[in-house]
Amino acid sequence: MKALLLVDIQNGFCPGGNLPVPDGDKVVAVANSLIDSGKYDLIVASQDWHPPGHGSFASAHPGAAPFEIGELSGKPQMMWPDHCIQGTRDAELHPALKSAEIDLIQQKGENPDIDSYSAFRDNDRDASTGLSDFLEDQGVTDLDVCGLATDYCVKFSALDALEMMPGVRVRFIEDASRGITSEGVAAAVSEMRTHGIAIIDSAEVLVG
Fold it and tell me: pTM for the complete prediction?
């Protein structure tokens, strides 16, 4: 059972969004080709789904500025611009993404007191979203991960998949992903590879 996890391919992380990833919209066409490939038995997507005033927003902390390190629930926290607020266009999946073909959309980041980069659990590694249980119940043996952003939500989703679903083969599709900084992407790819996650591109899926 092969599954594809599309991480946070949302308006908020694409050009024109509140927290745009450079060239974030370029992943959409690649993701659509993967969706159309017929290579996957199951297609799932994660969706950042923050309540207004989420604690990871700089605006929730007087005097804080986006992209500086602050504190949330007693732990260091990157302060982000307000983004992907529930029910807003910013939180919607990119309109060109073939969303009708997605079997499950897993929302995350709803607890205002803790951020959730991973599609599988919050940053405290405490509260699970239930995605790993769903995939295991479906009998998934192989999981390909891609989306936005490589150096945050994609990386943590891939690493959590590996840890929370022992025996499942996890691969990262590099050309179907974009990151916030080149240095962050390089470090994320290195970390994933070190943990045994295969680094591939979409051509390996499409011709495989």
Answer: 0.97
